[in-house]
Specification:
Mean pLDDT: 90
Largest sheet: 6 strands, mixed
CATH architecture of the largest domain: 3-Layer(aba) Sandwich
Radius of gyration: 25 Å
Number of strands: 20
Structural class: alpha+beta
Shape: globular
Length: 351
């Protein structure tokens, strides 16, 4: 990332609340115009980090650099960031137009310029005819779009979102994820979203930041995090990988599920390791076609429509397998199958 592309540098930020370490040396470089998702389990520190970026919490150590300017101690109203909260925080006594124009009015923008900006944004969010409607009369999806328009009205340098879609039903949430990404791309605003929804993060993010216990475990594009997780926590948290114990049996080989696999591994012979494998990277064959691959027993079958999910017991491990292969539907419970593992798709971590 060039100096010109670097927009926000979260530089070794730590935060403590009454003896509880909420953040520890968080260091992130956020590119201008990118969409960044902070992802992790409850209590991992992602909302605390977003509140520090917004200015609602102060850092204990470290600093925030926005375009080479230290904003660590700057109050929220001077940062000028756009925010959308989980509650949306729209003003129920105001019309849609008044809600969107609120930030512009506080900044002394003329009434005619406010009207022009509101009209522009209502067309962008594809709700051009609701300016005079009370927000209480809007659907959940419409309120969501109005909240986004209000946050973007002031043309903020950063757009911050704290789980804004979590209260929506599944279908509307999926549609709003697409709309949110399209709006972000139209405006080109650097966006940081807090979510615990893996699908949402994978769908929206240019950069995925996986957190746990106040620390960043991995920061990379979604495909990299999914295919090459930094450790077993990231692998298991994102996409529920199969995590299986193994051992380095010889140079370039590991012993996994009572079989030896050729795998590029740097650990010494005898090292205990954990191996992560995605459900879609495991294939099944008829037992008599196993050709030296492990043999497993079908313990669970679930038809998901476009794909089939199974649980296969191999040795003492239970592996989740997912495939769009139509022949999967022919498998039966307790049936013996060959288990073919793509050794090129394995992620290996020291146990």
């Amino acid at each position: 990332m060039s100096v010109q592309d670097l927009h926000l540098h979260i530089d070794s930020v730590s935060k403590n609340f009454g003896g509880v370490q909420a953040l520890t040396n968080v260091d992130l470089k956020i590119e201008r115009g990118s969409f960044v998702c902070l992802l992790g389990p409850s209590g991992c520190g992602k909302t605390t980090l977003l509140r520090i970026i917004a200015g609602f919490e102060n850092v204990d150590s470290g600093r925030l650099m926005l375009d080479d300017n230290d904003i660590s101690m700057m109050p929220p109203h001077k940062r000028g960031f756009g925010m959308v909260f989980q509650s949306l925080a729209l003003f129920p006594h105001m019309s849609v137009a008044q809600n969107i124009a609120y930030g512009l009015k506080l900044r002394g923008v003329s009434a005619s310029a406010q009207r022009d900006r509101v009209d522009e944004l209502l067309h962008v969010i594809e709700l051009p005819n609701i300016a005079d409607r009370p927000v209480s009369a809007l659907s959940g999806g419409q309120r969501q779009r109005v909240a986004i328009a209000r946050a973007l009205a002031i043309q903020p340098p950063l757009f911050l979102l704290d789980e804004p879609l979590s209260a929506l039903d599944a279908k509307l949430r999926d549609n709003m994820q697409i709309e949110l990404r399209q709006l972000q791309q139209k405006f080109g605003v650097t966006t940081i979203l807090v979510t615990h929804d893996q699908h949402e993060a994978m769908m929206l993010a240019d950069e995925l930041v996986v957190m746990k216990n106040g620390k960043v475990f991995q920061s990379a594009p979604p495909s990299t995090v999914y295919q090459r997780p930094a450790d077993s926590f990231v692998a298991d948290f994102l996409g529920a990988a199969n995590i299986v114990s193994a051992v380095v049996s010889s140079k370039g080989q590991i012993e996994l599920l009572d079989r030896n696999f050729d795998v590029a591994v740097d650990h010494p012979v005898g090292t205990n390791i954990n191996v992560a494998m995605r459900a879609e990277h495991i294939k099944l064959t008829a037992e008599d076609q196993a050709k030296g691959n492990p043999i497993g027993t079908v313990e669970f079958i679930r038809d998901l429509g476009p794909s089939t999910e199974l649980v296969i017991k191999v040795c003492d491990e239970r592996l989740r397998v997912r495939s769009d292969n139509a022949t999967m539907s022919e498998l039966k419970l307790s049936q013996k199958v060959g288990v073919v593992i793509d050794s090129n798709a394995l992620s290996i971590f020291r146990a």
